[in-house]
Predict the 3D structure of the following.
Amino acid sequence: MPDATEPEKLRTYINETFKTTNFEWSEERWTEFVETVKALNAKGVKVLLLVTPMHPWVKDAPAADPDWSTHEAMAQMVKRLEALDKDLPLSWFHDFNQGGNHDYPPDEFYDADHVNRTGSFKLTGRVVEWMGAVSGDSVIR
């Protein structure tokens, strides 16, 4: 995969690689995931779930990620994670991608689904702030 130092090559790569969708939701895997989160919560473990931002060009591609999930499947996953956030008192969810409608410009990405150093500082600051807000701690240790 080309990195962001070659923007046109990266755009071409995203347009080619993300043009195919191939996603099938697995209720069995989702149930296993939820049961794992519940088991951790039952032991007093706080679980923080998040979706990281994707390169802004991805929102215009047919696939929402390099695994070829559709945008509809990603939206369904976000809705399910939001429901977990509401249902489980020791689990929280935040969508930092917002369907690609975020404020991370192309130059803050290393590739299609990883922020670069600049983007990572921005994202880390936001994650730490969010963690403090949901955990009740102003400083995360």
